[in-house]
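Onboarding guide, step 5: your first structure request.
Type a short instruction followed by the sequence, for example:

Predict the 3D structure of this protein.
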Amino acid sequence: MNSCLLPSRSPNMKNSKSVADKFNRDVEKKLRKVQKSNERLKNMELFVLDNSLRETTVASIQAHTLENKRAIYDEIKKVGFDHFFVESFSTQTRLGDIFLEELIKSGEDLSGAWAFSELWEVCKNGVPQPDLPIGLVKCKKFRINHVMLEFDLMWHSVNYDVFTMEKLCAFLKERIDWIRANLSKDSLIFTNLRDFSNCMVHHPERVYHVVNFLSSLPAAERIMGIAYEDLGKSLPEEIGAWTCAVRKEMDRRGWTNGHFIIHVHEQWGLGHSTQLSCLAMGATGIWAGVCAEGAALGHADSTTTILNLIRLGNTKVQGQFNCQYLREAARVVTEVTTEGLTPARTPIYGDRAVDLVFGFLFSDPTAQGGFDLCKFFGLEQDIRITTMASPEMILLKLEKVFGKDEKFNLEIATSMKEQILKNAADDKKEKSTDCDSALIPLL
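The system replies with structure tokens like these:
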């Protein structure tokens, strides 16, 4: 056999060091980019436009009741969200209309209330018509001053060769002027580029045209910002790149204080990663519900996003919101909406999010430290007894369930661990973690 085909038994230490140095440089190069994103997430203030009253009822199997609306509204106030959607109006009388009448009658402060409105509703021969959308009509009726104007840049009913971007922007400016003349001169306004992701794939020039137009308005005429959303199909890096491009265009035109807020639907398990990527790449906030409930698989909620910022070291959001209450608010809104318990495996606010699971982490001092979710929320960590539990964990569980007892020691805990493993090997499906009856047979 040709000896040159065999690996060297005495590696060249100089070459080995050279390869290791190259490896380290590659790591450092990539980490510099990551560190820049982490620093932004750590130091940013987060604008939140709460959508709990509306998002949690979109395509919901069970509609909200007035009692549900009241409960959700109370949770919004407890968390301290200053800006919140109350309704997406339609020609029909929705429950939100009735709830608004109740809030107004009770003298509730609605200075932070927002509503959705279409930019146009009537389209003839491929051209949007100037008819006032019902959303703006009802905003005036209910004295809701702050509006999110929604529109699409690839809607099949619109002929964009006729209704050009110049005409669309002029149409948009007329709506903005109407809001300020008929609702309030101090109205806060967002435009929502509803099909942002699809348009960035197929017609990015249309997004550029709208962003450039809004960013180039005189400072006194600018709106609060631009909203956008993703249906959960885009990769985090992809929509992060688009976000960066839009943010740079806004800044180039001097609109450095303009908000750029993201809403991400869940579809492929990337929702929160996508949302964090957008924030890292230039988005200034989110419009989301406090829990993940929403159309289809839900959306990237504000609780999970804010807690991710906190675990990265962000202290500013803790001054903006009642963050210690977020977990409870998310659980309440989930259960009010679904009439069921919060799914146990939900990150941050599910029951299992605060379980102690792995014995090797419990016993290894090098694995300690970092952000402690239980400590942050003032919760006692529950110990889950499984084949992964250490004898020390089993001993603590015994004392928690039954109280201190002289016969509880590491010896009996070790025997119990062995019995759990034996039961698994014997093809016995047993649950040993959460009740007296499960633990007693192992004593």
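Each response can be followed by summary notes, for example: Residues 86 and 324 are 24 Å apart (CA to CA).
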